[in-house]
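Practice problem: M14 family zinc carboxypeptidase
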Amino acid sequence: MNVAYLKSLFLTHKESSLHHRYITNLKIEPLLNDLEKKIDVHTLGKSVLGKPIYALKIGKGEKRILMWSQMHGNESTTTKALFDLLNTLLDKNTALNSILKACTLYIIPILNPDGAEAYTRVNANAVDLNRDAQDLSQPESKVLRGVFNHFKPHFCYNLHGQRTIFSAGKTNKSATVSFLAPAQDKNCTITANRKIAMEVIGVMNKVLQNIIPNQVGVYDDAFNLNCVGDTFQSENVPTILFEAGHFKGDYAREITREYIYMTMLKSLEYIANNKVDGSLYKPYFDIPENEKCFFDVIIRNAKTSDNRVEDIAIMYHEKLIDGKIEFIPKIEKIEKLTGFYGHKEFDANNLVVLDLQGEGVKVGNENDFVMIDNSKIALF
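Answer key — structure tokens:
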């Protein structure tokens, strides 16, 4: 599948009922009700607060792929892309039957429904499920582990979302999509198992370089057996971390959603139609490691109250307000920010930056607007 065909498939099959960042069980249940007429849809278990954890099974092939999203409740971009993917695979006119013939997909669209509803990273017991792979202290962790043990996947897709701070290397290029073939031992050995995951990531990166060149990163592979990906990799199941990141201006993550969809579909096609043995793993090492080089906004050359000239860094803090995600600009740093970039930048030209009350801005302040030379500047 070339890029043009992937794009056309996305436009045709994008699930219009899912949009923006707040995706919960309530949003996906009507879709699941419709899908259960076509594929296996069932409840795996319950969350801490008793919400159902749903699963879908599609395909009849021997290659088994386990995919889970919203392990962190506020990371919903990959969930949207999963439903776009399902729409595509169920359309008999797409000529993608080879995937369902070769593969069986087991999909958990929202592993952490309590966190999704509260729009938090953690579950209702304030536990990060991605650090609970060994203790299995939470019902959601036990659900995932149970599926892993029963389904016995050949591949795992660990689907996440990342903050706007990440760059692809030490550059002014945002890491719009990131990957990782997690380590499976403390020495981060490049095992045969990891090579298989790396090969698939290399295929996905090749597609993305045609669309968002130099905007793909990989994470540091420091080993932590408490993490789910590291645990599954250590048990010799090739595991791929997907991270949906930031594209300029795309705070709703609708553009990134398309890129995640394209990578998932391309990777499934590759797995379905090839014997993936890890021999083509080396392109993985062409992908730069993620760095933290971005703020949402930087105001350059701002004069402070003691006549220093500094830069002002602003980050957006996501808050759930009346069922909608709002982005609240907050001053993070006032200092020289050499080597850092803003997704949006302003130049204060050595003038004082004030809040709307006429006071100088301070670290920790939440400001929707600032004043520069009597001009009102919107920070979002």
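Discussion: Residues 294-378 form a domain with the Urease, subunit C; domain 1 fold (CATH 2.30.40.10). Students who identified this feature from the tokens alone can consider the problem solved.
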